[in-house]
Every structure is written in C-alpha cells, then in structure tokens.
Amino acid sequence: MVSNESGEQVDGNIMDNGIDDATKLEEPAGLQPGQGEYITGTFQPRVNASTRRNPFNDANNMISAGGIGTRTSTNSTSTPSHTPPTSEEITSALNTYERAFFPGQPKSLSGIALRAFLLGLSLAGSVALTTYLLYNANPLWRAPFFLASLSLFHFLEFYTTALTNSPGARVSSFLLSSNGSAYNIAHGTAFAELLLSHLFLPQSILPHPIHTLLLLTGLILITIGQSTRTLAMLHAGSNFSHIVSHTKKSSHELVTTGIYSILRHPSYFGFFWWGIGTQLVCGNVVCLVGYAVVLWRFFERRIGGEEKLLVNFFGDEYVQFRARTRVGIPFIN
C-alpha cells in the first residue's frame, strides 16, 4: 500500500515580524523602496508575494504539530526562500481549516458522531435480536446477524482509519455511501433473498450436515475476512487509504512487513472472503454466486490497475515483493 498523507515541520514563531530598533542594521545601498524589510534585526530582500507559502498548509501543519513550534535560529546573513504569511493570512487559513469540520463538510464532526451512534445502535440491536431468535430456534436470526456484520464492518472502517491515519479520517471513511449505489443494491438484494427464502422455504432443502457445514464455513470466513482487513489497516497505518493514489509522493512507502509479508493486498483479501461468508451464513444461493462474480471482477481489475501504479512507483522493489507474496483470491495472481 502507499501513503496518501505527508507532513512537514513549519518554521517556528512565524508571526514575529517586528523590528528591534536596538539591533537593526543599516539598509543596504542600491535597493529601491519596498525591496526589503527587517527580519529579526537583519535587513533581507523582500520575496515576491507569488512565492509565499500556502497559508492553509501552514495552518494545517501547525495544527498537526500541536502548535506553531519552537523558534529556530537562522543565519542572519542568509536569504529566506519564502516570506512568512501575515497574521491575516494565518487567520483566514485557520478559519478555512476549521470549516472542514462543520456540518455538511468532508470532516463534519456532527456527521461522524451521528453515523457512529447509528451504527452502534444498529449493532447492539441486531446482536440482541439475533440472540433472541437463536434462543427460540427461529431461522430468521440470519437477517439481524447480517445487519450486525455490516454495522461492525462500517464502524471499523472509520475507527481504524481515525486511529492510525487521523488526517485521512473523514465522513466518507465509513464507506456507507462512497462505494456507489451498486454496493447498497447488492446488500439490499441479499436481505430480500434472505427474507423471501424464509417466507417460501422456511426449512433448508439441504441435508442437515451439509447445511451446518456451510453455516460454520460462512462464520469462519466472516471472522477471517474482517480480522484480516482490520489488521491490514492497523498495520499499514498512514500508508493505508480508501482512495488509490495515481501520483507518487515523497512520503509514499511500500509496506512489506507483518501480514503484508504474506498477502500483498490483505484488505482486498479480507473483504472478498467476508462478503462470501455473509452469503453462506444467510443461506443465499443467488447472492452467493452474484457476490462471488462481482467481487472477483472488481478486485481483478482493481488489483491489476493498482499494481501497475505500484511498479511505476517502486520499480524492481515491488516486482520482487509481488513475486514472493500472494493475493489470496482465487485466480488472481
């Protein structure tokens, strides 16, 4: 996986542009008015405004670093490559940064809180209903169990991102709607098939041993799939992103340790087998085949395109990494 986030340490005390009359030097001769200014007691040529740092990035980096940093000493005779942003620019940048957390924005705190609350409520209610139906030997327990699996999956998508890659966490990290309509239609169809099967075929047509084996296989696949995907996200940390990067940044790093030493796309492996497992537990025949075909085609294309980018990013390093690892999805090398 590759990193989509980077950080840099900003120059300390960037708002201190005052002139110390006791230490300032004489203005060099031969300069036109407005061509220079006093900075920390030394006259420096003024840098064209077009070369100034982006104030939003300065504000973002200051916040990420926990403050404006500490003063760093500089050679009084050296010429700075950038002019520090003004206090008005910093204030504007901070306001822009804060607006990202307002309602309706990508990192809306109210949106995150609401989704987390609803997913928690759904998970708790589904687990309780699943337990009740199982206790009463009602085969319809599979419906709330499926809902519980979905609730846990989407909560963990955001939680692991926020835990290990905080700058990348946003409302879309829940993956509730960012996967497109086909994703939601697939899950809705699975629920519909489950309920229709219960209505018209309340008893399994398979022999009891085979039915039990398929059920246990589904539960195992769900556990392995969810655990693998979550572990992969935790291990990759800031190197994990839900969005494929098409350009290599200086912070991009190839992760080859931990679970990545065995599977080079463990998050894809996890989701594929998690999806298959849910349909085995639900007892869905049509959706089992549908999930398998659609997920395989999606990951076959996704992995193929992504690995071309990774070869361009890392060259022979990735070629060797690919040769000693596997994908873990049938017929995808």
Write a compact overview of the structure shown.
This protein has 333 residues and is mainly α. The protein has helices at residues 55-64, 87-99, 109-135, 142-164, 181-200, 208-236, 266-282, 286-314, 316-323; strands at 36-39, 42-45.
What does this structure look like?
The chain contains nine helices and two strands; from the N terminus they run ββααααααααα. With 333 residues, it is mostly helical. Strands 1-2 form a two-stranded antiparallel ribbon.
Shape: globular
Give the termini distance in whole angstroms. 17 Å
The portion of residues assigned to helices is: 40-55%
Lateral arrangement of strands in the main beta sheet: 1-2
Total count of strands: 2
Average the pLDDT over all residues and give the rounded result.
81
Largest sheet: number of strands, sense, barrel closure: 2 strands, antiparallel
Element string (H = helix, E = strand): EEHHHHHHHHH
Rg is 28 Å
Strand content: under 5%
Report low-confidence residues grouped into runs of 5 or more. 1-28, 31-52, 65-78
Number of helix segments? Answer: 9
Estimated structural class: mainly alpha
Q: How would the blueprint of this fold be written?
A:
Layout: E1 36-39, E2 42-45, H1 55-64, H2 87-99, H3 109-135, H4 142-164, H5 181-200, H6 208-236, H7 266-282, H8 286-314, H9 316-323
Antiparallel strand pairs: 1-2
Helix pairs in contact: 1-2, 3-4, 4-6, 6-7, 7-8, 8-9
